[in-house]
Amino acid sequence: MSEETLPSERDAHAGELAENPFADPGLPPHQPRRQDIDEKAARSSERTVALLFTLSMLATVAFIASYVIFPVDQNVYIWPIGWISALNFSLGMTLGVALFAIGAGAVHWARTLMSDVEMPAERHPIEAEPEVKAQVLADFGDGARESQLGRRKLIRNTMFGALALVPLSGVVLLRDLGPLPEDKLRHTLWAKGKLLINQNTNKPLRPEDVQIGSLTFAVPEGLEQEQEDYQEQIAKAALMIVRIAPENIKDKQAREWAHQGILAYSKICTHVGCPISLYEQQTHHVLCPCHQSTFDLSDGARVIFGPAGHALPQLRISVNDEGYLEALGDFAEPVGPSFWERG
Amino acid sequence: MKKLSARRRHPLAALVVLLLALAATGGLYAALAPQKAVADDTQQSLAIEEGKKLFAVGCSSCHGMSGQGSSDGPSLVGVGSAAVDFQVGTGRMPAQQPGAQVPQKKVAYTQAEIDQLAAYIASLGPGPVTPSKEQTATTDASVARGGELFRTNCASCHNYQGKGGALTNGKYAPDLTGVSAKHMYEAMLTGPQNMPSFPDSTLTEDNKRDIIAYLQEVNSDDSVSPGGFSLGSLGPVTEGLFGWIFGLGALIFVAIWVAAHTTKAKKS
Q1: Contact residues, chain A, for B152 at CB < 8 Å
Q2: Closest partner residue to A32 among B152, B199, B265, by Cβ?
Q3: Which of A154, A204, B21, B243 is found 20 to 30 A from A105 (Cα to Cα)?
Q4: CATH superfamily of the domain spanning A187-327
Q5: How far apart are CA B189 and CA B128, in angstroms?
Q6: Domains of chain B
Q7: A208 CB within 8 Å of a chain B CB
Q8: pLDDT tens for residues B171-202?
């Protein structure tokens, strides 16, 4: 608290009005630090900073050493974390110490040894002086006249044309960002006669395998994990299979496209394409974990909550001569999120 | 012997041999096979009888006097002994009150009583059977394959490490930490409450054992967490929260601490 605001001081000047109550009080007098006066303290600070920087160097060496020493799969018990990878722990610890020691050393150096004398820097307008502005404008006018830009319109116009066209080469190169999607978004691997392969057992599904209340995931026949485009294909073709007693399926088309109550729906949410399989077997609701879109599988996978734009596409299935479930074609509409030309 | 041999062509010899053979077969049969079967049958029917009595007292108000179901509880015909062992063995049944989901609580019956109840319900109609010790043993199971299967089939609701998660309208997928292998197996087999079932026809017994082995591997007391603090294994939400509150908090604290200490020789 400044002394002038104390009651005794205030009362002493009661009734007098200061000449300029808002005058700039200026900077307080500079106070030296102990290191500024005492050379011994300064040397001690220097040693502390050097020690911190040396610690950082040692930690970096330890980082490299732990990278070499610890195998990836070695685990150690460290209280209070528990069992942890020795490599992860030592790399994180040593890098943390190395970085922290550099920061702490720099802060200590700046606070105790670097000059801390207050230096005011006055603000000034950023606008140029009027004479300078006039000179620049005059120089520009001279240049325009001497280049005959205004007089020779043919040169001016072709130059503008050349400058406008040059960036086009850059735009054309953007085409190399990738092949055009063409109709990839509209088609999946499903086709007429493709068997439904159980993702757990890699065997084709029979209708009697799928019980009421159960949940099964299927992939199209012929899709192998080793395939180069496996991820791309499974991202569109992933299928979730549930069975609901036919009399409980409200949507007529869904009942017809099912086989004895076995419904095959796309597993890809129609909002932003999250894999969706939080199935509640009593309510027949499927919940998307990303944005809580909820679909009613007993009513044609209608959206009953959340941001999804349309129902989950249903795959039309039947049973082939050998008693296996098979697709009767591709999905009737594009799977997954909406896109501009989806219609 | 000579005497016996001499009479072997006597007119009554065939009759005597036949009588002896019949007596031997009947005696052996009476001595060995049927007795055990009778004992088993009696034990089974006794269990059913006891289970029926327990059922009448503890369960019939909701599930009906003969398990046919009512407006307050589903029919138990054909749910099998596995469903009973899971629901009663984890304390979910008998239910305390109606609601979005019946929670796990203190088990009300002894295992012997649960077995009797299960025997009674199993007698109402064929259904999934309580798995044996061998069926849930994970000694030969593959943890890696189990992890893959868990992430495909279960992780969407139960979280990638079985820590559970929220569903719609107050329902939830419970935390699987500390759940016994038998109960996990039964849950997959029967699909309790809103959980879909994963019958042996779509998720084989081996698959189920692999999944159990994976959960035991990641959720036991000496599970390894290579990345350090697991923070409840809940994923980016807790990790972000921890980083923002404790990581950033520590930095702010250090900055304030540094600025609060003057380096001036004359402390004011």
Answers
A1: 199-200, 217
A2: B265
A3: B243
A4: Rieske [2Fe-2S] iron-sulphur domain (2.102.10.10)
A5: 7
A6: 39-122 (1.10.760.10), 133-225 (1.10.760.10)
A7: yes
A8: 999 999 989 999 999 999 999 999 999 999 99
